[in-house]
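Supplementary Note 3. Input sequence used for the single-chain structure prediction.
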Amino acid sequence: MSSLTAKDNQIRKKKRAIQERRDRVRKFEIKLAQLAEEYRERTENYERLSERVKHANDEIRRKDDEIEDLKEQIQIKQEGFFGEDGDGFGEANPGMFVHDSGEKMSSEEMVEKSMAILMAQMEGLKQKVKGKDDLADHGGGKGEESQINVSVFYQRIGEYCSFRVTPEYTFEQLNNDACKYWEILPDDGTLRDHLNLMWPPQASIMEELSKYDEPPKIILISRIRPEDGMENIGNSSNDRKKNKSNFGMDFDGLDSDSDSDDSDSSEVNAQSLIKEWRNASGAKLSPFFHTPKVVAERNFRALNDSGSDEEKEIAEYMSIWIRLTLYCFFLYFFVSAVQKRRRVPVTNDIMHSLNDLLTSEPFKLSIDGERHYTFDEISDIDQVWQWLEGPFLNAIYPQFHYTSQALSSEESRFILRANKLIGGVRLRQYRSGNHRATGGCTDTLEQLKGVPSIDSHGCYVPYSMDRQRMYVASLGGDQAYGPGKAYEGFQYKQGRDFNSFTVFSGSSFFDRSGFAIELSHMRQRAKLELWRLRDQIWIDDDTRALYINFNLLNTNYYSISSVKILFQFTPAGYIKKDIDIDVVWLSLYGEAGSRSPDDMTFLRWADILCFAYLIKIAYDMMCELALYGFSAYFNCVWNIVDLVLIVGLTTQLLVQVYYDLVVSRQVDITLPHYIQIERQAEFFSHGINLSVLNAVLAGMGSFKILQKNLSISKVWQTLDASGSVFLSFLFILLIVGYAFVIIAHFSFGPEIAEFNSLIGTTNSLLVMLMGEFDYANIKVADPLMTILFYTLFNMTINFFMASLLFAVLNDAYAISNENFNDNESHFWQKLLLAPVKVAKRYLKRDDNGGGKNVKDKKTKGKK
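The predicted structure, written as discrete structure tokens, is reproduced below.
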């Protein structure tokens, strides 16, 4: 064991030594890279200095030649006089330096007279030159044509500056002037073009620019001196490092005792640093809306269209082509499968036809036989019975053909010629009783004690499961009520005994248990049952809700329609009515009910292809996770969308298979009694809702594929730039909107049906944002409040909040537009031309004997 421990210690020491050597190698590589960069910079500086020295020597030689020429022309002779020639100078005049008396002048006098003559001649030359300039000015201003304006773009802070240059103006002079303008050391700045190539320093700007059809870019790039990663630079460099910013700006001499000029300079430098940092931050892609690969490419300037490797660029766009093609195939099959399973038009037809059948037929009251009522006008118990015995019975149990001939017993079970009644019709009643004067409402309201009507009638007790149990317990051991307690329908039944389910109406939650009865599938028996229930007062003042259920099988579509009708008896005396129809397809892969016999095959192959696409997404995700890490990968929202899509689509496929093989087969349409299909309806609804969610997520996948499009990236950059401000705006909008919802609900809800609930009020205000507002109807409820509410709502939401939203997005777009020039992007052009370029290369290779060349290259590579 000791030997093994010693070996382990030696191995750990070796690993530690290897790691230390790797760290040293990495540091040396960093230092080598810096030295290589410094060598390259010094080489460029040496080349520039050599050009400047050569140019200076040429200039000196040219000046020497000019001086020699002038010396030859302006030779001063001791005897003679200059006679004017064409150029202002002539031969010497012999009597030039002689007095009138014939004596020779002294040397001082000769020099003085020579200078006077030369000054006079120079004045004459100036007059001639001035006259030529005046003629040039009168000739149309041709002197200005020798000057042009040149714009220089400083890349680090994203600013432009224009300079007026002459024909003799060189790029070196322009670089010095630009560096002086932006406060950069001339040695740190270089002028480059859009291909990142340096302009020749000693070349004339006008001559170089005249070679281009369109003015090229002149970009000023300032070198940032690397400060990190160098441990062996020395104490002097470490001292300098303390006085420099992260961007390479020197802060030496910026102390607290500096004068006003130094403080102004430091303030300018600080502002320049802040502006530079903001532009550098704004130029980066948002990692929340872009994958780590695209963010890294942008940060290393590989996303620009210029200066990129053509082979790499074609490969990238071909990769986008392949991913986009696979994505389009997946989206087509997936959305088509959802449409074929949901069958929206058919479902809508079934629901509307059944709803119209149950609600459109009018009926008369037994007391008032002159007036006709409809389902929506039911307001008391007598109208409920008349509707059950009239339109409801005629709709569920048809008895005559359109030729007025009687239908057979089997034909009478078909509604609208295609919907067969499965089992019977179940009627379920919920009761909670009432309180007499000895208890209930009189316990809380002392004023009601002794009122005769309260003593005889009692108080309304709202429904709840506990109150219904208390009411059932008060009925005695038989748990029955009324004159017909010995018959079915008057006895209390537990929900598990007759396969019932709970009901939520939006305002009340009804238990599975209740007082239930099932009508026969035969019309005459069902009619007799209804008459008996009415005669024995099955519905009375203790009734809180009546729930009617029946199922219809559509033989053409192989679907079941679960019809649920609910009557709620409110404390106000109003009867709330609601009809809910759920259309459930009994097969998600069967060909019954489809438009074409090939739909079954299409649905199966669509699921197989979608699952294969999921495997491809999962494989790409695992590779990128291994490359970028968990935190960096899931920092992008589109990667999260892919993960949710994988989980959601896998769950959807499992639910569909389980529904088809297990859940839908639990429905037995041959049973003679009522069966509830709530489980099938819930599974079918969950599967469809999940498929709709997955369809939305699948559509969002296109944003990940088209990330390299700068125009699309600019939109996401705008949202990212608005970030916290946009969320703060949404919070303020939520609070303000909540206030208006409360005001509208309590002000207009008691009289306007659209505002009688918080959800309905919210929907009405959202519709009001679109410009639809029933002002005349609401004004009747409260004229003064309507004026105030309408004015404040429009001023606050439509004007102030909308303007604030536009301002936030406008500022964010301005920031994004400053750093992302999508005019330089040719994404769609390159995407469309990439296959063409690849095809041309293959054709060219085939023309040149491509197969043989490839074989030769492979053989050469093996050698």
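The chain has a mean pLDDT of 77. The chain is about 55% helix and 10% strand.
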